[in-house]
Request: fold
Amino acid sequence: MFIATAGKRLREYLQKRTQKEFALDQLRDKILYRKIEGSPPSFNVAGVDGGIGVVKLANGHQVVLARAAAVGSDFIEREFIADIASVDSASLPWAYLVIVESLVGMRALEKHGVDVLLMDGSLYAKAVRLVHNLILTREFQNLYYVPELATALYTLSRLIKTARERGARLVFVSKDHNYKLLKEHVIFEILGERYRDHLFQRGLLWYSVLWIRKFRKELLELYKTIRNYDYEGARLLTLLITPSITDIEILAEILPSGHYTVPMLVGGCDAYMNFKGLTTVERLVKAAEDRLEDSLIFRLKDNFNSNILEYIRDALDTFPKIYFFYIKFDRDESPLLVEIPVEGTRMFDGSPVKAFYPPARVDDVVSLLREQFRDPVHYNTWLWYAHSVASFKSSQLSEYAVYLKNMVEDVGIARRIKLAWGL
Reply:
């Protein structure tokens, strides 16, 4: 309750600051939204959530634990991975989380005939972060675990493919997120109408040009120029480059309760990939091959499948474009981010896409999520149940750590222990 109250006060502060300092009125006409209407069809629904725990050992190694649960009306499925990691990496526990959530999601689809599978988190964020770690990483901590990251990418793609083959819908729901995708898009659209500048057109297609130093410098120089004669344009640029103002702060002021934003079609728009020309599957596979070769130099004692690159290629070819939109159920509630894979599309087809797409029909999903909303804490019935089953308690972490540590000492070697492994 304390956290919910504190969060509400923080949102109120940011809303007042946003209204006072920034040009939100100019954004209102550009942010399209619809009213939530109708009742959902009768779906067989399940929710998937996971949790990770990391316990450091005296020798500097870490016990990494990841588990996930799929919860439906008449079943609970679980998946678990335990590993002793000799190299400290923030990406490894997260990759294991993606793996267990994907595996348990596939089991729910295959064994229980689920029509709608709700997944916790952002599909776009998972896909892009995994690809970044495969093609851009240079840090030893992440480079060492490229095979595990490839496994996570492949397993997530298998989940998408399984849902597609069985005619089920995947719906990714995010409660906590800090996207600025919608904010940047509408600001670049307005600025593109005011000025003819290639940077604004690029900002419409890529997310986010602010990550690229070259473009940040261009925006700063443009701001210095126009602030002397275009007050409103300067305010828009200030809003654009202010990192603390995310989509949530914008929509808290603009999106009415009981409404959702018109879905955006999002695919292949990552600024880093486009800036480096890595926009097709073959180019991405080539970049991943270089990182994989570097990684395997450090992993000579581990026996990995020789077809890792083919798994990466197949995964990249499977990822679809996404319908990306926000829902606001309650006046005091932050909007939820919802993402739905788009049938018959490919994310990495060489053409960046980021635009509102009014023909998208998501009314049944929206009404389903409204029906399952309870309050800001229990924002979705099935995801909350799954979270309750999958989350770790501190006492459980200690028990797992002691058990695995003793097991390693008993066999007398520092071997890795895996209880579920996909590749």
Summary: The first helix runs from residue 2 to 21. The longest strand covers residues 45-56.
